[in-house]
Design goal:
By secondary structure, chain A is of the alpha+beta class. Helices cover 42% and strands 17% of the residues of chain A. Chain A folds into two domains: 99 residues, 2-Layer Sandwich (Alpha-Beta Plaits), CATH 3.30.70; 67 residues, no CATH class. The chains are: A alpha+beta, B mainly alpha.
């Protein structure tokens, strides 16, 4: 278990969130993540996230799909089980291209999905901590990770000054765990999340 | 300071006149040595090369208007900052329509039966397939449909350009802006529907596929469209980069260029997909009257051109334009755009030549000279059209969204 302390600030406006993210970074706080109900253009750049390398993985998966299909079909049809289809050459590359293409797409799609799930640490039956339930609805939730030197009170005030509507501190598991949320109450030493309708 | 009004730089003018001079010299030499030569073979070469170039550039310029209309129909705003560039290129459609029409008249009235076999009445009467096709492939239908097509392309294109210039004058109120977008949508719709009836189906059958009069393929038109759309997009990218390098188009950023690059990348694959679908079905079916088309191209004298075509138009864009950085890099985009325009020009070459000149083809002074002539014409008229109006429709309702465009 890897439980850490987080300061959570909620915003209801992108126009407030962006300057707040910039200020927080400038002040030297470590942003764990910003949870938004929808993809926000430019937020990744504002947070200073590096570009994902998922597409490189996708290219390699695709290439392995191409090689698998080409290798397997050519082995079957020219070595293992040679058949004569309407007088076509045994190495009938043109006829195989659709299948090679399909396998390329399949490998890269499945591979990228699994890699994405691994990178984000999401999977069926696997639970992750929600910092705020309304992050999936109408709030932008900025989460700052506390280090041993962080002054929690100061951080909370900083977020409030930056325009956060609601600020609290949570102890949370950073990774994932198996099971149900209601059985994991013990995971959090103090319950601080308040839901306002 | 924002430079809104394009003024043709002297370097551009020099290149334009250089291309035009080389092209005209080649053309005059072509008239003397090929068109007036005693050999029938030379006449065919002369007209086939002119046909290839005029059709390639006409389709390419028209594809730029397709780009604007398709994006307008999709209510996409990102094209707004640079839409004067495709507009300027599409202003060449009337010019190339006239040139093409003159070439058609010379070919059909002049009885160039090596180019269009179906204009030979005697041959058609003794040929079951051609007789059967004569309802479609006859000079009357050819000219009527060609003139209608050229007129509607030119007219709807001019209408779209006129609508675009309306956004230069003054700020629009909400209701007015809504109406403006609606009128734009309607005219783009008209253009796209007519585009489907012409470039999407009948026109490439009539103008290009009828060179191989016995052969037919329903995918041919889409394949031609793919070829010309990629070259049209490449031209747009070239002009954007050119204008950016001369400090124009301030609001067109790497984000816009990357999206044009994505279009080029995607439609290069689209072109290959259609090309391959056509090829594979014929290869698999293995019916002699269909395979004849590929025999000469794939295994005959055009084999090298075939492989250059494949490498330049498919392998190069898929590998080079795949990454984000390369689509934002001016040097790589310029290189790829030039390569693709030439590659698809070569694609048109292998559409026209095997059916006309057969194995006696040559890629010599006249071919490259005519290409220079058409490049010169394109540069001259595009430069003129660009300097006619501001480079950005300032009060277009979508302009803000386009300036903020982010990929």
């Amino acid at each position: 278990m890897n439980i850490k302390k987080f300061v959570v600030g909620c915003f209801d406006d992108e126009a407030v969130l962006f300057p707040a993210v910039k200020k927080v970074r400038k002040a030297g706080y470590k942003i764990h993540d910003v949870y938004t109900p929808f993809p926000v253009h430019g937020l990744d750049a504002a947070m200073g996230l590096r570009e994902t390398r998922l597409h490189t993985a996708g290219f390699i998966y695709g290439l392995s799909g191409t090689c698998t299909a080409l290798g397997f079909i050519s082995w079957v049809l020219t070595k293992d089980w040679v058949l004569n289809y309407g007088g076509k050459p045994h190495f009938a590359l043109a006829a195989w291209i659709p299948i090679i293409f399909e396998l390329t797409v399949l490998f890269s799609a499945v591979g990228m999905t699994l890699t994405f799930c691994y990178l984000c640490q999401i999977a069926p039956f696997v639970k992750r901590h929600h910092f705020h339930k309304r992050a999936t609805d109408d709030l932008f939730v900025m989460v700052i990770e506390c280090t041993s030197k962080t002054n929690v009170q100061e951080t909370e005030n900083f977020l409030k000054n930056a325009g956060a509507l609601e600020v609290n501190t949570q102890l949370a598991e950073t990774g994932w765990w198996l099971g149900r949320y209601d059985l994991d109450r013990k995971l959090f030493e103090s319950k601080t999340e308040t839901i306002t309708a | 300071m924002i430079k809104q009004q394009f003024e043709t730089p002297t370097g551009y003018k020099k290149w334009t006149y250089g291309f035009l001079a080389v092209g005209l010299a080649a053309f005059i030499a072509g008239v003397m040595f090929l068109a007036l030569s005693k050999e029938e073979h030379d006449h065919t070469r002369f007209w086939a090369v002119l046909l290839q170039n005029s059709l390639f550039f006409l389709f390419t310029c028209n594809a730029c208007m397709f780009f604007i209309c398709a994006n307008t129909l999709g209510h996409s705003a990102w094209q707004t900052t640079f839409r004067r560039v495709p507009e300027a290129i599409s202003a060449l459609v009337p010019v190339f329509s006239v040139i093409t029409l003159v070439i058609f008249i010379a070919i059909i009235m002049g009885g160039q039966t090596h180019i269009y076999h179906w204009i030979d009445k005697k041959a058609v009467a003794n040929d079951k397939i051609l007789t059967w096709k004569s309802g479609f492939l006859n000079p009357t239908f050819f000219f009527v449909w060609t003139i209608i097509t050229m007129f509607v392309w030119s007219y709807t294109g001019a209408k779209m350009r006129k609508l675009s210039r309306e956004a230069d004058d003054e700020q629009m109120a909400t209701e007015q802006a809504r109406k403006y977008i609606w009128v734009n949508t309607v005219w783009s719709g008209i253009f796209i529907v007519f585009f489907a009836l012409t470039v999407g189906s009948t026109i490439p059958w009539l103008w290009l596929m009828s060179i191989d009069a016995h052969w037919y393929s329903t995918m041919y038109s889409w394949y031609t469209f793919g070829s010309t759309f990629v070259s049209g997009l490449a031209l747009i990218a070239l002009f954007i980069i050119f204008l950016k390098n001369h400090n124009y188009l301030e609001y067109t950023t790497a984000e816009h260029l990357q999206d044009v690059g994505k279009y080029i990348f995607a439609f290069s694959i689209f072109w290959t997909y259609l090309w391959f679908a056509q090829f594979m079905l014929i290869w698999y079916g293995n019916i002699p009257e269909e395979t004849i088309y590929f025999k000469i191209r794939f295994q005959g004298p055009y084999e090298s051109i075939f492989w250059i075509n494949f490498c330049v138009n498919f392998i190069a864009p898929i590998l080079i334009l795949m990454t984000r950085g390369s689509k934002r890099n001016y040097a790589i985009m310029t290189f790829m755009a030039v390569a693709l325009v030439l590659g698809h020009w070569l694609d048109f070459y292998q559409m026209v030549m095997p059916g006309t000149l057969g194995e006696h083809y040559s890629l010599g002074w006249f071919e490259w000279g005519t290409l220079a002539l058409f490049i010169g014409i394109t540069m001259h008229f595009t430069g003129k059209a660009l300097s006619k109006s501001p480079l950005m429709p300032k009060y277009h309702p979508y302009i803000k969204e386009s300036v903020m465009h982010h990929t």
